[in-house]
Amino acid sequence: MPTLMTTGVARVAVDLGTPRQRFLDRLTAAETESLRARGQFPPGSMGPRLEAALRFVRSGGRAALIISVAWVLEAVRGGGGTRLVADEDRVVA
C-alpha cells in the first residue's frame, strides 16, 4: 500500500479547467517534474501535494497515492487516485 495523501478531488488532473483537461492514474517522478516545469500543478492547487509526493519517492518511498478522502476505501482495494512512483517503476508499452 502506498503512502496516502488526501485531497478534495479523486485524481490529479493536467490542463485543469480547460477543454484538454485529463485525469491521471499514474505518474513517475520524472513525468511529474516535467509537467511542473511546463506550468502544471501551481502552488495554489496540486503543487504542494505533488512536491511532497516527489520528495517521498525521491527519498526511497515506493509510491505516494493522491486521492480524495471519499475514495480512500477504493484505494485500499487497489483502485482510484493518482499514484506517483519512482522512475524505474514505470512500465512502457
Description:
The longest helix is centred in the middle third of the chain and has 12 residues, at 47-58. The chain has one domain. The strands form two sheets. The chain has a four-stranded mixed beta sheet. It has a two-stranded antiparallel sheet with strand order 2-3. Strand 2 (12-14) and strand 3 (22-24) form a beta hairpin. It is built from three helices and six strands, in the order ββββααβαβ. The model has no long low-confidence stretch (mean pLDDT 88). It is α/β, with parallel strands linked by helices and 93 residues long.
Summarize this entry quickly:
This protein has 93 residues and is α/β, with parallel strands linked by helices. The chain has helices spanning 29-37, 47-58, 72-76, and strands spanning 3-7, 12-14, 22-24, 26-28, 63-68, 82-85. Helix 1 packs antiparallel against helix 2 (47-58).
